[in-house]
Write a structure and sequence with these properties.
This protein has helices at 3-15, 29-35, 41-57, 62-65, 90-98, 105-155, 161-173, 177-184, 198-217, 223-243, 257-273, and strands at residues 18-19, 25-28, 68-74, 80-89. It has 280 residues and is α+β, with helices and mostly antiparallel strands. The chain folds into 2 domains: 3-117, no CATH class; 127-279, no CATH class. Strands 1-2-4-3 form a 4-stranded antiparallel β-sheet. Strand 1 and strand 2 (25-28) form a beta hairpin. The longest helix has 51 residues, at 105-155.
Length: 280
């Protein structure tokens, strides 16, 4: 396919992209019909039907990606007529392309175009999730540092911090920190939290924040009192997770957060050197 045609089709597809009120990008089927080389609406509906089946088989709700709509079109007489149309998400367009006639140049282009665009969206989503986890880990570190300081303020020493944190882990996971390290294959010299999924990082952070608040509010002045508070808070968080079908100790370990952070930092540096690199 010639470069000129590729650029032309790319511009045409993007020109027809629209956004719904909730910000979701979509195309209208009657526009896509002609862009993909289908002259007759009936023939194109056959392709859409196969795409809907593929969507359903993939486990995605068809109405979320192929909602029916009505729109007004201009007639030669100057009047307008109400006709059926379909809003298509980027994923729906991709499925239509996959189920279209591969002999059409437009279909061949669209198969690659929407596959690449969908993949880019997946990569962006993955990066956002990784950044969220790194942020959650940093937040937990800050909160635990504050708890250590509170313990020092209330008891006159912070040597009990590790013990209190360990008791909190046992209450949250139903097993010791060391047992969880064994489950997640965490090196002995690394914190358990470095391999915890985001939801666990946020759970631990929430329980620790409550411990800090109540330790100060109730002037808890002994390791025993603060440990009891921390255990109670972690048990409460655990019960909440269990009630929502989440068993903390059964979750798989996440990638070493230090590696994730280094990867994100490296990607940021590359992007600064070559602004177009993230589009590659």
């Amino acid at each position: 396919m010639k470069t000129e045609l590729v650029h032309s089709l790319t511009s045409t597809f993007e020109a027809h992209a629209q956004r719904a009120d909730n910000g979701i990008e979509f195309w209208l089927a009657r526009d896509i019909q002609h862009l993909l080389g289908y002259a007759k609406w009936e023939n194109f509906l056959n392709v859409v039907s196969r795409a809907k089946t593929a969507c359903d088989v993939s486990g995605y709700p068809v109405p979320d990606h192929f909602p029916d709509v009505r729109k007004m079109v201009d007639l030669g007489s100057g009047s307008q007529r109400d006709i059926d149309d379909i809003m298509l998400t980027r994923y729906a367009c991709y499925l239509i392309a996959q189920n279209g006639d591969p002999r059409k140049q437009e279909i061949a282009f669209a198969q690659t175009y929407f596959a690449v665009q969908t993949r880019k969206a997946e990569l962006i989503e993955q990066r956002l999730l990784e950044a969220e986890r790194v942020s959650a880990r940093k937040k937990l570190s800050e909160t635990e540092k504050e708890l250590s300081q509170v313990i020092f303020e209330q008891t006159g020493g912070n040597q009990d911090f590790a013990l209190i944190r360990s008791k909190g882990d046992h209450a949250l996971f139903g097993k010791s920190t060391q047992a969880m390290k064994s489950t997640w294959n965490v090196p002995d010299n690394r914190p358990l939290a470095d391999f915890a999924p985001t939801i666990i990082l946020k759970a631990k952070d929430f329980a620790t924040e409550i411990t800090i608040f109540n330790t100060r509010a109730h002037q808890l002045g002994t390791e025993r009192a603060i440990s009891s508070e921390h255990i109670t808070n972690n048990e409460a968080v655990r019960n909440t997770l269990l009630s929502r079908g989440i068993r903390p100790e059964a979750l798989p370990a996440a990638e070493d957060v230090k590696k994730v952070e280094r990867r994100l930092t490296s990607e940021d540096k590359k992007a600064l050197k070559n602004p177009g690199s993230l589009d590659a």
